[in-house]
């Protein structure tokens, strides 16, 4: 085969009409960097130049080469997004409702067994409309997927509208997933995960629960991803000059249910028919006046807390900002401009002072009829870890324009091992009337089959062997004829052996190894 490939390359080179394509040298450098390195402790072997040329050419011809995951650091490709509960039996103090401790988180090691089994390296390049798209890596299980891909300008210049002074938000016109060439599929989004330090280059993450009819496990199937247009926000964001919210939160005591009042709940239904519910609370005022921003030095934080995956923030405005403008306030990653507070239904933050009849026992935000403060609820953050590098900003959630019009397509096998464990014939009925028929757990997601007339799910969590709980907020479910299929992705990589129970609408379902297969 090597001789045949060598002959093919020589034949191509002998034709006068063949020219070196634009960017070939740069592409070869990227391929060389991506090649697996020798393992430590092994003798260094000389790699023949002829073999290197043939291998590089083969990579260019094939454009999609899965690589054994333990030969390269998947964490580097995914910008170290993977975290796991600490193995030390010392859960962090509770920051959520209900009084259950949340585990401390730590980075997943590069040689973590799950990443080795459930990860594959890709190197698939598609160039069009002045941009190069490179699929870099996948991590998945039977019904969920992480995919990292790079986007670069072909001329090496910054993205259109990108400057050092302004943070711009990028989004795609459309991302469509199809399995095994089927006409039907599902749409999804992608979030930028790099730090924005390299002009004209960005890394995006697709984190998606996969729902394909008649497919129990997507591992081993062929996935096609079609991407349309790269768009840029017309609205720049005015980012507050401040410490990140994770650091500021240390100035406040952890909340208990006595520290906030339940105000109500909102329920929304997205374009895919998935319903999501968010409780609304009023966080009590403390009388604290924490100065936190050089952008608006008059403003103060009175209290802040993380409750059920949402951030609550009490602000003293003190005339620094028009109260009407705070509805345009967002939480953003100051490194790359990603808006973290955007919720699937399209709203970002709720100004709770717009509701009538505010409970005076929670503290007044008005003096002599003038609004001096506000309470904000930032929805859909999921876990306190999101607050690292997160700051407040005004603007940036408005209209978008197409900066790069074109299409880019990837197609590759989901070449990884499905590490899921199936708990069959459970037939356990919880106190809330939900009967769990079957459960599938993996280190990154959960799938439930339930018999119930319940059409709303909340207060979902994993209980670990040390009694700590990980809140599940990335929920999707469909119900028909009294049967509900629910899927959820975790906010961390969790060892299945550490999961002692699953919390479903507040009720505890203990796991039995005898039910697993």
Quick summary:
The chain has 517 residues and is mostly beta strands. The chain folds into four domains: 2-38 and 45-62, no CATH class; 70-234 and 401-413, bacillus anthracis domain (Immunoglobulin-like, Sandwich), CATH 2.60.40.1630; 238-398, no CATH class; 421-515, Immunoglobulin-like, CATH 2.60.40.
Task: Note down, in words, how this protein is organized.
This protein is mainly β. It has four domains: 2-38 and 45-62, no CATH class; 70-234 and 401-413, bacillus anthracis domain (Immunoglobulin-like), CATH 2.60.40.1630; 238-398, no CATH class; 421-515, Immunoglobulin-like (Sandwich). The chain contains six helices and 34 strands. The protein has helices spanning 2-14, 24-34, 49-62, 74-77, 113-118, 245-249; strands spanning 67-68, 83-85, 105-107, 119-128, 131-140, 144-153, 170-179, 185-187, 191-192, 201-209, 222-233, 238-239, 260-269, 275-283, 290-291, 300-307, 310-316, 329-333, 349-351, 366-367, 370-371, 373-378, 390-394, 400-413, 421-423, 428-429, 435-441, 445-451, 460-464, 469-472, 474-480, 483-489, 499-504, 507-510. The strands form nine sheets. It has a six-stranded antiparallel β-sheet with strand order 1-4-5-6-10-9. Strands 25, 26, 27, 28, 31 and 32 form a six-stranded antiparallel β-sheet that branches. The longest helix has 14 residues, at 49-62. The protein is globular, with a radius of gyration of 25 Å. Keywords: Membrane, Transmembrane, Transmembrane helix. The chain crosses the membrane at residues 47-69. This is DUF4179 domain-containing protein.
